[in-house]
């Protein structure tokens, strides 16, 4: 009887191990399909009420990426908007529409592999896209000291990377994570994420290298990036730093009147 029990026990352990190992293989080989979701669409038909020029930006590795550029006056600061891991530029219309009534220019770019762009998104690829967008703005006569980096979710990891040891006008981080390792551990706690993950986006190791004024906003009921990550990023950031933490916002912040007042005040303080 005990022998049969032992055999059954070891067979069960073997099956569990095989399933676990197969899941590890799937996570390793398909992780970028899980991280980058260009086809996900939560676009609800918002109409652009701010004029934009559609521009093509050539990256350092010779990929054309799409950007929407809005310019009011040269004297205004320019936001470089770096979006999250899912969807298209259209998914951000409800946010950039609010820039119409602010003294701000903006450029929002679509990552490689997103919004019809060729290429496959990777951590280094997105860093390349963002640096190329900065260079494009510089070619328009806009210096880094007049550029505000705006990172949304995954885009906060890119903004944190390129903001290091630079003199950008300011940094805005919406729902930032400490690192992709921490974020993935939150979703897959039983797997050795640190060893599996290719794109680590270690923002927590970089934020101390940012000297520009920084504004961090995060909702306490965020179901994707836990609020403690945004709070930790704020605690690690250098002064001058500002925060907007709400009790009700989920992963994407509600661009309500209270947020817009604080955001506008931060931007105006950089002029």
Outline of this structure?
By secondary structure, the chain is α/β, with parallel strands linked by helices.
Write up this protein.
The protein is α/β, with parallel strands linked by helices and 271 residues long. It has 2 domains: 35 residues; 220 residues, Rossmann fold (3-Layer(aba) Sandwich), CATH 3.40.50.1820. The protein contains 8 helices and 8 strands. Strands 1-2-4-3-5-6-7-8 form an 8-stranded mixed β-sheet, with helices on both faces. A hairpin with a 5-residue loop joins strand 1 and strand 2. 38% of the residues are buried.
Residues in helices, as a percent range: 25-40%
* Total strands: 8
CATH domain topology of the largest domain: Rossmann fold
Total domain units: 2
Range of strand content:
15-25%
Report the end-to-end length measured between terminal Cα atoms.
Answer: 80 Å
Task: Give the CATH architecture of the largest domain.
Answer: 3-Layer(aba) Sandwich
Indicate the radius of gyration in whole angstroms. 21 Å
Overall average residue pLDDT? 93
What's the overall geometry?
globular
Order of neighbouring strands in the sheet with most strands: 1-2-4-3-5-6-7-8
Oligomer: single chain
List the helices and strands and how they pair.
Layout: H1 2-35, E1 53-58, E2 64-70, E3 78-82, H2 93-96, E4 105-109, H3 123-139, E5 147-152, H4 154-163, E6 170-174, H5 180-187, H6 193-196, E7 214-219, H7 227-236, E8 241-246, H8 257-268
